[in-house]
Amino acid sequence: MSTAITAQQVKDLREKTGVGMMDCKKALEETAGDVEAAVTLLRKKGVAAAEKRAGRAANEGICDSYIHQSGRVGVLVEVNCETDFVARSEPFTAFVHDIAIQIAAMNPLFVSSEEVPEAWLANERDIAADQSKDIPEQARERAVEGRISKRLKEICLLDQEFVRDLGEKKQPTIDELRARLSAEVGENITIRRFVRFELGGQ
């Protein structure tokens, strides 16, 4: 016997995820009315849908700036989408501003791990190997790769956890937030580049 899904449940789920009414209804039916399970299901589908859109040209978008209240840190970031309509939408502009704040707070060095130069990785690998020299040889390589993976999550924007607490059980990464927005607006969303200035920095 299937669970009866109410219009209010669908509305609540849509407000939480930004996904269309029919997709929300289907997700609730698949999860027997469990809203949290439906959110997880839609997030998984959203990521999959965003991956399908990844090859589409994203030539519109906006540049946003953020200056920390103390005036010591400033950020410029460019985020792209496919149409001017989405670029002017509130969800998109809010996302871009959140990204600028994230960069100011967390000081990433690269947008994604694909951008990390081989020379940088080689240097970090040498440091990790030196830090792991007391670990038994059979476990040393795994320890080195574990240190590198942890470091990449710290310095790559897309792999960082979002600084603002969303009240979720697991804090989403920036890439997960990007995928959610992509699912919501139905367009490919890419964080193209950023620059972060800090008073007295290089």
Characterization of this structure:
With 202 residues, the chain is of the alpha+beta class. The protein folds into three domains: 7-53, Helicase, Ruva Protein, domain 3 (Orthogonal Bundle); 60-112 and 156-198, Tetrahydropterin Synthase, Chain A; 117-154, no CATH class. It contains eight helices and three strands; from the N terminus they run αααββαααααβ. The chain has a three-stranded antiparallel sheet with strand order 1-2-3. Helix 2 (21-30) crosses helix 3 (35-53), helix 5 runs antiparallel to helix 8 and helix 6 (118-131) crosses helix 7 (137-155). The radius of gyration is 20 Å and the shape is globular. The termini are far apart. The model has no long low-confidence stretch (mean pLDDT 84).
Topology:
Elements: H1 7-17, H2 21-30, H3 35-53, E1 60-67, E2 73-81, H4 84-87, H5 90-106, H6 118-131, H7 137-155, H8 174-185, E3 190-198
Antiparallel strand pairs: 1-2, 2-3
Helix pairs in contact: 1-2, 1-3, 2-3, 3-8, 5-8, 6-7
List the defining traits of the structure above.
single chain; 202 residues; alpha+beta; Helicase, Ruva Protein, domain 3; Tetrahydropterin Synthase, Chain A; three-stranded antiparallel β-sheet; 3 strands; globular
In short:
The chain folds into 3 domains: 7-53, Ubiquitin-associated (UBA) domain (Helicase, Ruva Protein, domain 3, Orthogonal Bundle), CATH 1.10.8; 60-112 and 156-198, Tetrahydropterin Synthase, Chain A (2-Layer Sandwich), CATH 3.30.479; 117-154, no CATH class.
